[in-house]
Amino acid sequence: MCAARALFETKGYLDTNVGDIALRARVAHGTFYTYFSSKEEIFSEVAHELTTDFQRIAADEPPLAPGASLRARIERANRGYLHAYEQLAPMMAVLEQVATFNPRLAEIRRSARRSRVDRGTAAMRRWRERGLIDAAVDPEYAASALGSMVDRSAYVWLVLGEQYEFDRAVQQLTLLYCNALGLPPDDDNSA
Amino acid sequence: MCAARALFETKGYLDTNVGDIALRARVAHGTFYTYFSSKEEIFSEVAHELTTDFQRIAADEPPLAPGASLRARIERANRGYLHAYEQLAPMMAVLEQVATFNPRLAEIRRSARRSRVDRGTAAMRRWRERGLIDAAVDPEYAASALGSMVDRSAYVWLVLGEQYEFDRAVQQLTLLYCNALGLPPDDDNSA
Amino acid sequence: MCAARALFETKGYLDTNVGDIALRARVAHGTFYTYFSSKEEIFSEVAHELTTDFQRIAADEPPLAPGASLRARIERANRGYLHAYEQLAPMMAVLEQVATFNPRLAEIRRSARRSRVDRGTAAMRRWRERGLIDAAVDPEYAASALGSMVDRSAYVWLVLGEQYEFDRAVQQLTLLYCNALGLPPDDDNSA
Amino acid sequence: MCAARALFETKGYLDTNVGDIALRARVAHGTFYTYFSSKEEIFSEVAHELTTDFQRIAADEPPLAPGASLRARIERANRGYLHAYEQLAPMMAVLEQVATFNPRLAEIRRSARRSRVDRGTAAMRRWRERGLIDAAVDPEYAASALGSMVDRSAYVWLVLGEQYEFDRAVQQLTLLYCNALGLPPDDDNSA
DNA sequence: GATGAATGAGTATTCATTCAT
DNA sequence: TATGAATGAATACTCATTCAT
Questions:
Q1: Which residues neighbour B142 within 8 Å (Cβ) at sequence distance 6 or greater?
Q2: Does the keyword section mention Ion transport (chains A, B, C, D) (predicted)?
Q3: How far apart are CA D18 and CA B167, in angstroms?
Q4: DSSP code per residue over chain A
Q5: Which of A68, B61, C43, D81 fits a 20 to 30 Å CA distance from B44?
Q6: C-alpha–C-alpha distance, residues B56 and B41, integer Å
Q7: Res D79 pLDDT > 60
């Protein structure tokens, strides 16, 4: 799977063939099928590993001080997301690729997005009830759209190679995110 | 090209073959190469047509009253973008697909994005100089990130099929956009 | 198809590969698919040609004198069948082979047999009504079983290579056939 | 071997793989080769078992009264043959299949047929010497052809699934068989 | 004897592209 | 220009058999 992942990262899904994977793993061509039933299946496993890695890395940010502000927590989440994307960018690009023509594998990306957006929606609902954010903001649309903003920005910067500077990106993304929700400039509330 | 576009829309780039295009265009298989040098080239032409169509449709919104607010203008731009995406979604999906594995064709999408973001950046610079928006917002990052937000939201709703309601989407996207920039709730300034 | 038939005859269906067919036809491997959609399809065409040839050859026996006896007509049919089988034995063997594992192609053999047995049944019914044959003989079973006798004997002699002598075989087959039906030793009736 | 036989019966020779046999026998894949040297060999053993079973079942008909007629004995043999075929039809079908492409295994079927035909020939020679059957009938051809009739009829009914009714089939087969040999309608001679 | 991982030869099919007519 | 037959490279998957443990 290690060999496969490396090849997927460098050549993409379409240009990676089973023969190359076996070659790189230093086993016979047929041996591949002792471990995986198809090219699609091994990609699926790599992709699941990817989403697991992603969540682990994204969560692995320095803990916030107790009672940290909402803004600080959003910033931490954004930094975590960008950190994870930064480390996994090549595979994220391939997952994006595969999702455009393989419905079964698209589902992996879709469910990852789904759970992220759902968590965002739930959080925003709480914040809204507590009057912490702009009442005009619809949690569902906001979670989806702001999720798209962070997600796509990471892709544009880390996959497409648009110029950016990490800390500045985190800071601006957080500023836009908080402003969008109507979070007061400097708050000290915890959710 | 009409035949090709229809096929690309329904089957995607990978599953559309030159033979099918010729068949649909009612010419011989070989005749295809009288007009196009390769499958990549015809896709390139279709993609250029797509971006032209997109701009035309996006611009084809009812004109604003003279002296309309910035917010109104942003809303108009968002509505135009979503309208255009709505009408061209199938081809947009294919362009997205191809851009993931063909660098040459990725360039088409990249330059369309580039000019859109550049215009956004320029506008935000002007608004910033005039003190219309949050001084902490960096025009380059904001134009890029908010462009990503609108762009990706359209993809998620119109290509991936996530539930949404058109007018609500435009309104929320605009609200988040303006909030993000720190635009005062209701202004009557024109840029 | 000529190349394919020759290969099927010498190597059987399983050991004949598309590459060999193309090679023998002196065309590129891929050219095969310009003419046939699959190995199964080309076999199907060869098999249909075979059944056509078979019927043509089987019918191509010297005509009988007007008013020839039933026995003479049965002998002529048996001789025709054996003649056809003799000339087409290698392909008949392959058809038999394929029919054991490919239901679609088995249908070709089945329908050829079906029509032969049906004709036999109809003829025997007429003979029975006219009191020409043993009333205890059931036309359906007799046509099926005696058809099997002739059919399988041809296979055993011409495919499996069991020793036989052509004229003697025809004569004995006819004797057994007529005896089985209870046809009087020497009749001069026409049907 | 039990596992192998069950698989051969349901899936045929070609679609049965060594891995499946081992799986069904609840041993490791490689263990198969501790007991059998190849797929061909295990099939050979199953096929030998089959011919033994066949002879046992075919012989296991109610004994005839002492001094039973020739016709009664022929009917008993036909009934026994059809009974055996009925019980072993799936494996008989596979043996027929394999015999079409594997000369070594074809030999099993050939020798079973050979001994049956030889016995028939010997019997008919005796009957002929005693003037019990039509003198024009050649024992060799008759034993071969009538053996083919019974054998192929069984295949057509029990493997190919052509409609038939057991007792009627035995009766008609016997009638045709005896008629073919020119056996007088009702005799009381024993051979 | 038993295991099961490893082997690697074998093959039908697709399709963008070319070119003689 | 139009044709469409010909091309041939490219590739995932199967499976009987082997052998180190």
A1: A172, A176, B120, B121, B124, B180, B181
A2: no
A3: 63
A4: -HHHHHHHHHHTTTT--HHHHHHHTTS-GGGHHHH-S-HHHHHHHHHHHHHHHHHHHHH-SPPPPTT--HHHHHHHHHHHHHHHHHHHHHHHHHHHHHHTT-HHHHHHHHHHHHHHHHHHHHHHHHHHHTT-S-TTS-HHHHHHHHHHHHHHHHHHHHTS-----HHHHHHHHHHHHHHHHT--SS-----
A5: B61
A6: 23
A7: yes
CA distance D87 to D107: 22
Q: What is the CA angle B114-B120-B121, rounded to 5?
A: 85
Alpha-carbon distance of B158 to B85, in angstroms, equals 7
Residues B170/B79, Cβ–Cβ less than 8 Å: yes
Residue ranges of alpha helices (H) inside chain D are 2-11, 18-24, 32-35, 39-59, 70-99, 103-129, 139-158, 166-181
The separation between CA B157 and the C-alpha centre of its own chain, rounded to angstroms, equals 13
State the Cα–Cα distance between residues D101 and D96, nearest whole angstrom.
10
* Predicted structure pTM score: 0.89
Smallest Cβ–Cβ distance between D152 and the set C152, C164, C169 belongs to C152
CA–CA gap between residue D116 and residue D124 (Å, rounded): 12
- DSSP assignment string, D67-114: T--HHHHHHHHHHHHHHHHHHHHHHHHHHHHHHTT-HHHHHHHHHHHH
Residue keyed to tokens 């009381």: D188
How many CB pairs (< 8 A) connect C and D? Answer: 113
B2 pLDDT tier (thresholds 50, 70, 90): confident
Nearest CA in chain B to A164: B141
Q: Hey, what are A149's tokens?
A: 């903003």
| Structure confidence at residue B1 (pLDDT) | 82
Asked if D148 and C152 come within 8 Å (Cβ–Cβ), the reply is yes
Mean pLDDT of all residues belonging to chain C? 93
So where are chain A's domains?
39-181
Mean per-residue pLDDT of chain B: 93
How many CA atoms within 13 Å lie on the side-chain side of B113? Answer: 24
Query: pLDDT tens, D99-151?
Result: 999 999 999 999 999 999 999 999 999 999 999 999 999 999 999 999 999 99
Q: DSSP secondary structure string, B148-162? A: HHHHHHHHHHHTS--
Structure tokens at B80: 């135009």
- Superfamily of domain B39-181 in CATH is Tetracycline Repressor, domain 2 (1.10.357.10)
Contact present, A and B (at least 3 Cβ pairs less than 8 Å): yes
- CA within 13 Å, CB half, B178: 24
Which of C96, C141, C182 lies closest to D168 in CB terms?
C141
Question: Hey, of B74, B134, B148, B151, which one would you mutate to test binding to chain A, going by the most A CBs within 10 A of its CB?
Answer: B148
- CB A46 within 8 Å of CB A95: no
Q: Which two tokens stand for residue B18?
A: 């030159």
Confidence of residue A38 (pLDDT cuts 50, 70, 90): very high
